[in-house]
Amino acid sequence: MRLNMKGREKKKSQSVIIILIVILMGITGYNLYTMYENIEIYSNYEASKTGLSTEYQQTVDNNIENNQNKSNMLENVIDSVVGISKLKTTGSSILGTSTEDQLGLGTGIIVSENGYILSNSHVTGEKYSQCYITLEDKNTYTGQVVWADTDLDLSITKIDAKGLKYAKLGDSENVTIGQETYAIGNPIGYEFRRTVTSGIISAVNRTIKIDEENKSTYMSNLIQTDATINPGNSGGPLINVYGEVIGVNTVKITSAEGIGFAIPINVIKPIIEKFINNGQFEESTLGIYVYDQDIAQYLLLSSNITNGIYVSEVIINGPAYNTDLRAGDIITNIDEIELRTINNLREYLYKKQPGEEVELKILRGKISKNIKIILGKNNSN
Predict the structure, then answer these.
(1) Which fold has domain 170-265?
(2) Is residue 234 flagged as an active site residue?
(3) Contact 290, 309 (CB under 8 A)
(4) Is 13 in the active site?
(5) 257-267: pLDDT as tens digits
(6) Is 153 a catalytic residue?
(7) Active-site residue (options: 172, 220, 234, 284)
């Protein structure tokens, strides 16, 4: 009996040891499993965190680079922006004690290295008048207005200077609604010179009515922008994201915020090129007054214009006077080039010389005609 008891106790001890070993192996296995699982989770987390950090850093770097590029672009354009005044001042402020109207305070754009300045005619004055041009280096020059058109509200002034940094002219024909844009100018005087505002192109081919001194005039084919334009911005550049001038700032609606207008740059480019290349410009003319489609319809002159421009008057003894062109005709083409706006006609005529012949395609009711005209010289601008 004593031997049997010892055998049973021995077997019992062995069973307990086996059970303990199994439990210990289970605990060890569980700990190893948990440890490796945590290592994998931590590794995935670190990899994920590293990926997010790299992506975020790349975004930050791109934004910094874009902002730097934008800043460099604007700095380059600002160098070609000038201040313009009709009166010469010697004080630290261009405003002095005079009013903005007395000074004719405004902005201009250097468009050639040898001193041609583009601006508004209401800023510089009409042809042969003088104004004062202040460059980015604060040097002031006396400028001579060599060309001006009050209907377009554009002018070109010449100063005696060389080696100037000039603006790059873009293509206003390709301007689209929603396009990012910047306006640069001198909004309220010398202290705030070359202020930059930003916005988008809100509309194209806008027509506005201007009532001054009991007289109504119309400006057409304008670019509308919500970039802030103040009176002193007049004559300054409206530029695209590439730093190219696409328009010349001219007016804003005073009764509403965020509605400013610029004259498309394409209309004046042929004149600038002729002054740069030849030192002079002879403007050719058809000897007619015309309206864009929307103005003709607004004035109830014609209700059936779908394309072309409306002839409101043929000037007596002008180039078109002894031809078959009549008031009420609609000009659809010139030398087979389609005309959609007055600026299309202006831009083409600015490229021609007085004495050259052009051929107009016109509509008179339902009748289509071709009329040839020898261009005359416009001495009014």
Answers:
(1) Thrombin, subunit H (2.40.10)
(2) yes
(3) yes
(4) no
(5) 778 899 999 99
(6) yes
(7) 234
